Amino acid sequence: MKASFAAIAVVAQVASAHYSFDTVVGNGRSYQYVRDLTRPTKYNPIKYSTNPTADIRDNSFVDKGTDIVCNQGAFSAAGKTEVLEVKAGDKVTLKVAVGAKMEHPGPSLVYMSKAPSSVKTYDGSGEWFKIFEDAVCSTSGDFTKGAWCSYGKDSIGATIPKDTPDGEYLFRVEHIGVHRSHVNQPEHYVGCAQIKVTGGGSGTPGPTVKFPGAYKSTDDYANFSIYNGFKAFKIPGPAVWTGGSSGGGAAVADEETTPAPAAPSASAPAASAPAASAPAASAAPPAAAPAAPSQAPDAGCAALYGQCGGKNFKGAVCCSAGACKAFNPYYSQCL
Ligand SMILES: [Cu+2]
């Protein structure tokens, strides 16, 4: 039947564009060390609660509830998920399920959070520090696709800093699709492995954030446009911790409205490093400095290239730049 062929085609296409993480590369089977999830469609993204209802997937939100920690229902799998022993200094890489690839433009991030005792009983409500991030690897590539470091890849990995204290941790990978950030609808894909770090050091990981809380819908990344060529991208979340005791102070959350020439506090030099320039990701161009956002959609109307109308669309039907052009009954865009 014609309809079922169409349905199959859609599923296959969505599965390769959307993704969830299920295995630790080189270690075990699907969901052996990675917490399984309970969402009906495992590969669907997590979005902001402020997004149009029609667009929200499975009641998973970046800004409320706990799905942004390790994905929907992941904590219910904690007890049956095994704990992978790794040495500080080792690289841990999580792979996406069912042979999919991360075919969305956007940053990759890896965070860790220490369990108070066994990670099998830890809900991830504690402090998280970032150990890896990447974003744009080619300023001349297709900014809607291959210019992004992780575009088309099937895994995200990070080296456990040597200074990481021994103990059990959640190892959280995240990819954020920013292809719809121009309409404030970034897509978050997250997954957590349970690991036990041995041979570590006595560093103080930081700055730290919490989930939810690390990201806001008003952050740069959530209001960014990949259209019209390269522009500097500010990676959300805190600065990457590479060792030592850069923690302590306030979490360097992504305060998009304050390009504050923050007087570098002499007492915490590492914490004042710009979040956007990943020291670990050597491939990232220096251009990714926290420059002034080139796009500042005004409160009321949609920004250039933003959606400004269409059936089920609940946003503002006006443009702060350009004119609203209808492409079909479901989509109008400011051009
Ligand atoms: Cu998507």
TrEMBL record:
Coiled-coil intervals, chain numbering: none
GO molecular function, a single term: cellulose binding
Database matches in PROSITE patterns: CBM1_1, CBM1_2
A GO BP annotation: cellulose catabolic process
Highest taxon of source: Eukaryota
Region (Disordered): 244-269
Enzyme class, broadest EC rank: oxidoreductase
Keyword Protein transport: no
Signal peptide segment: 1-17
Bias kind Low complexity: ranges: 259-269
Cofactor section: Cu(2+)
EC number: 1.14.99.56
Keyword Membrane among UniProt keywords: no
InterPro entries: AA9, AA9_LPMO, CBD, CBD_sf
Residues annotated as domain CBM1: 300-335
Keyword terms: Carbohydrate metabolism, Cellulose degradation, Copper, Disulfide bond, Metal-binding, Monooxygenase, Oxidoreductase, Polysaccharide degradation, Secreted, Signal
Catalysis performed (reactions): [(1->4)-beta-D-glucosyl]n+m + reduced acceptor + O2 = 4-dehydro-beta-D-glucosyl-[(1->4)-beta-D-glucosyl]n-1 + [(1->4)-beta-D-glucosyl]m + acceptor + H2O
Gene Ontology cellular component annotations, sorted alphabetically: extracellular region
Record localization: Secreted
Biological function: Lytic polysaccharide monooxygenase (LMPO) that depolymerizes crystalline and amorphous polysaccharides via the oxidation of scissile alpha- or beta-(1-4)-glycosidic bonds, yielding C1 and/or C4 oxidation products. Catalysis by LPMOs requires the reduction of the active-site copper from Cu(II) to Cu(I) by a reducing agent and H(2)O(2) or O(2) as a cosubstrate.
Entry's free-text remark on domains: Has a modular structure: an endo-beta-1,4-glucanase catalytic module at the N-terminus, a linker rich in serines and threonines, and a C-terminal carbohydrate-binding module (CBM).
PANTHER family: ENDO-BETA-1,4-GLUCANASE D, PUTATIVE (AFU_ORTHOLOGUE AFUA_1G12560)-RELATED
The protein, known as: AA9 family lytic polysaccharide monooxygenase
